[in-house]
Design goal:
single chain; mainly alpha; two-stranded antiparallel ribbon; about 5% strand
Length: about 290
C-alpha cells in the first residue's frame, strides 16, 4: 500500500463499513425480530428453539435440555462475538478503531468541522497538536455543521432502531410521521446518545469508555505480534520537526516517541503526513509487528 494512499483507503473502508451498518437490518444480515423475539442472522432465525410451556416441565431431562439450549443458542454466540475484539487486538492492535469503527468516523467528521470553525478539535480547549484554521470562510462549515448536528443523530437513531424493530416498519413510520411508542423511544434515545458522544465526548469515549476499544487496547498491548506504528530510530535524523505527524493525530498521540502508545488506533495518518514531508524512503514511520519493534 503506497504511503500517500493511506488516507483515501481508510476513508473508503470507513464508508463501506457505515453502509454495511445501514443496510444490514434491511438485508436480514443481523437484526432482532420484535414479533418472534428471535435473532435474524443472514436470513436465518436464531432462537433458543424451545416450545412454549417447555420450561414448566420439571423433569431432569427437560431441565438439562433447557440449560443446554441456553448455552448453545444464547451464551455461546455472545462468547464468540465478544472474543472477536480480543483476537483483533492481539493481531492488529486497534486497527478496527482507526479503519472501520462508525463512531470513530463520526468523531473525525466533527473534529474536522470543529477545526474549520474554531481552529481546534476539542470544543472546550486547544491542544498542542491542533492543526489550526486553514484560510477560508467559516460560514459554510457552520451551516454544514448545524445540518449534521440535526440530521446525523436522527438518522443514526432510525438506523439503529431498525436492528430491534423491522426496519421497514421503522422507515414506514418515519415516512408517514406516525410513530409507535417503542420506535419513537428508540430513535430519540439513540439520537441523544449520538449527539452527546459525537459533539462533546468524541475520542474520550475511545480512550476510556468503549469496551471494544479497551479490549483491543489491552490485548494489543500484551500481544508480541500485534500490529502497530513503528518509529525507525535510524531515520529520526531526517526529521524536520514539522510536527505534521502530531497534527494529524486525532488521538493526541506523539508518533515520534519510540515506545508504544496504547491510544494509537493504527490509522496510519502519521505515515502519510511524514511521507509528504520527507518522501517515502525517508519516512520515519511504518506498520510493523510488535515483536520487531523497538
Amino acid at each position: 500500500m503506497p504511503n500517500t494512499h493511506i488516507h483515501f483507503l481508510r476513508r473508503t473502508t470507513q464508508l463501506l463499513f457505515i453502509l454495511l451498518i445501514i443496510f444490514a437490518p434491511f438485508l436480514d444480515i443481523l437484526r432482532i425480530d420484535s414479533d418472534t423475539r428471535s435473532l435474524i442472522v443472514f436470513g436465518k432465525e436464531w432462537s433458543i428453539g424451545l416450545e412454549e410451556g417447555f420450561y414448566l416441565k420439571k423433569s431432569f431431562e427437560n431441565i438439562s435440555y433447557v440449560a443446554w439450549r441456553f448455552f448453545v443458542k444464547a451464551l455461546l454466540p455472545w462468547i464468540v462475538i465478544l472474543s472477536i475484539f480480543p483476537i483483533l487486538g492481539a493481531l492488529t492492535g486497534r486497527f478496527f478503531c482507526g479503519w472501520f469503527c462508525p463512531e470513530g468516523t463520526l468523531f473525525e467528521l466533527f473534529d474536522f468541522l470543529t477545526v474549520r470553525i474554531f481552529g481546534r478539535r476539542n470544543l472546550f480547549m486547544k491542544k498542542s497538536n491542533d492543526p489550526g484554521v486553514p484560510a477560508g470562510k467559516r460560514a459554510p462549515y457552520i451551516i454544514f455543521a448545524l445540518l449534521c448536528m440535526i440530521s446525523i443523530p436522527l438518522f443514526t437513531g432510525v438506523v439503529l432502531t431498525g436492528y430491534f424493530v423491522n426496519p421497514r416498519t421503522v422507515w414506514g413510520q418515519v415516512i408517514n410521521w406516525e410513530f409507535t411508542f417503542g420506535v419513537k423511544a428508540g430513535i430519540i434515545g439513540v439520537a441523544i446518545y449520538t449527539f452527546i458522544s459525537t459533539m462533546i465526548i468524541r475520542h474520550t469515549l475511545c480512550k476510556y469508555i468503549c469496551g471494544a476499544g479497551l479490549m483491543q487496547m489491552l490485548f494489543g498491548w500484551v500481544s508480541p505480534i500485534s500490529l502497530r506504528i513503528k518509529t525507525d530510530p535510524a531515520k529520526l535524523a531526517a526529521c524536520t520537526d514539522c510536527k505534521a505527524c502530531e497534527k494529524v493525530c486525532f488521538m493526541n498521540v506523539k508518533p515520534r516517541l519510540l515506545r508504544k502508545d496504547i491510544n494509537c488506533v493504527n490509522c496510519g495518518e502519521c505515515i502519510e503526513a511524514c511521507t509528504k514531508e520527507l518522501g517515502a524512503k525517508k519516512c520515519i514511520f511504518s506498520f510493523a509487528k510488535s515483536k520487531s519493534c523497538t
